[in-house]
Write a structure and sequence with these properties.
By secondary structure, the protein is of the alpha+beta class. It has one domain (5-353): 4-Layer Sandwich (Chorismate synthase, AroC fold). Helices cover 24% and strands 22% of the residues. It has seven helices and 16 strands. The strands form five sheets. It has a five-stranded antiparallel beta sheet, with helices on one face. It has a five-stranded antiparallel beta sheet with strand order 7-6-8-14-9. Strands 10-11 form a two-stranded antiparallel sheet. α1 packs across α3 (133-149), α3 packs across α7 and α5 (232-241) packs across α7. It starts with a strand and ends with a helix. Bound molecules: flavin mononucleotide. Flavin mononucleotide binds at residues 57, 107-108, 125, 128, 130, 133, 243-245, 299, 301-303, 327-328, 331, 334-335, 338.
Length: 354
């Protein structure tokens, strides 16, 4: 499988570079007959789009997907591969000139040069750029449309910025969605305000801050997944770790003692359920019918405005430099729909396989 493809029955391939003419995706194996609700897709992609508020990069992009294949004359998916392109318009490649020689600490500039040599298109981070999460969100929006019609819902929220944590959802009966459309993506508005201040404090110092996103999925049938390498955790992990800046992942939550951690079984409405949900809805890699939830850790944005130490790859000498360009002071708010998108693609792949 290529570095840019994920999934088996539903295979999603991303393409493009940050400052190339366009980015996009190809979706193979998407079920035929799905009505594509353009407003839903635009609203979902808008949650990730840059340049909208103080906590994201000022690089403004329309992020308007153009669908080139996969729909019939009535706008329904027709079973052919779905191809979508998103034009890059607001590029400032000059900001990246110095990085051809001096790699940014914490970014992929150095490892990209090792892997691809001088031919690497490092403008805007090339194919490592989080711009590619726009077509990922397009694919995720389509997957979400399909899943929602099957009663499978998902919602993510910012779990943490720096050391400031959001309120915890009820892991047995989470009430989705966690926030109103357009709002800062948290459950507790007070904690959200403290998080925004934390991001602004980092930004005003020329620094960045990390955090975490928590995602809940309800309506999944029991029995999805498998043991060992067929496990749902492993399949979701591969997609979630593909998102730039993801450095950790935990399913459910773990308690100190087995007596606290084990979820007692019970019968509710004639069905086997659990009283608590520390396992995050997955036992032995297989869904148990309870909500599935996981927390994704994001590192602080590597491109910061403070002077940093690096090296010149031409002279092989150490040097000090400052990153130019427009960057997110914290990637977490924009990453919330990206986490949902990655999960939706994997779940559609699995649900179709059943
Ligand atoms: C939504 C989102 C936005 C991002 N924005 C930036 C950014 O503005 N500047 C930056 O240097 N990194 C940004 N990143 C992170 C980098 O793309 C990432 O750190 C880099 O590709 C190296 O990969 P790694 O951190 O996974 O090792 C962003 C990541 C995400 C998910």
């Amino acid at each position: 499988m290529s570095d840019f493809s994920i999934g088996e029955k539903l295979k999603v391939t991303l393409f493009g570079q940050s400052h190339g003419p366009a980015i996009g995706c190809v979706m193979e194996g998407f079920p035929a007959g799905q009505k594509i609700d353009g407003d839903f897709v635009a609203a979902f992609m808008g949650r990730r789009a840059p340049g909208q508020n103080a906590w994201s990069t000022p690089r403004k992009e329309a992020d308007q997907p153009e669908i080139l294949s996969g729909l019939n004359a009535d706008g329904l998916t027709c079973g052919a591969p779905i191809t979508a392109v998103i034009r890059n318009s607001n590029t400032r490649s000059g900001d990246y000139e110095a990085l051809k020689d001096v790699p940014r600490p914490g970014h992929a500039d150095y490892t990209a040069r090792v892997k691809y040599g001088d031919a690497w298109d490092g403008r805007g981070g090339g194919q490592f750029s989080a711009r590619l999460t726009a077509p990922l969100c397009f694919a995720g929006a389509l997957a979400k449309l399909y899943l929602e019609e099957k009663g499978i819902h998902m919602a993510a929220h910012i779990a943490r910025i720096g050391r400031i944590e959001d309120a915890k959802p009820d892991a047995v009966n989470p009430s989705l969605p966690f926030y109103k459309p357009g709002a800062f993506p948290v459950i507790s508005p007070e904690q959200g305000e403290a998080m925004r201040q934390e991001i602004e404090a980092a930004r005003s110092k020329g620094d960045s801050v990390g955090g975490a996103v928590e995602c809940f999925i309800t309506g999944l049938p029991a029995g999805l997944g498998g043991p060992y390498f067929g496990g749902l955790e492993g399949k979701l992990s591969q997609a979630l770790f593909g998102i730039p800046a993801v450095k950790g992942l935990r399913f459910g939550d773990t308690q100190n003692f087995g007596s606290e951690n084990n979820d007692a079984f019970c019968i509710r409405d004639g069905k086997v359920q659990t009283v608590t949900n520390h396992c995050g809805g997955i036992l032995g890699g297989i869904t148990n019918g309870m909500p599935v939830y996981f927390t994704v850790d994001f590192k602080p944005t590597p491109s910061i405005a403070l002077p940093q130490k690096s090296v010149s790859l031409k002279t092989m000498k150490e040097t000090e430099f400052t990153v130019q360009g427009r960057h997110d002071p914290c990637v977490v708010p924009r990453a919330v729909p990206v986490v949902e998108a990655a999960a939706a693609i994997i779940l559609l792949d699995l649900v179709q396989g059943e």
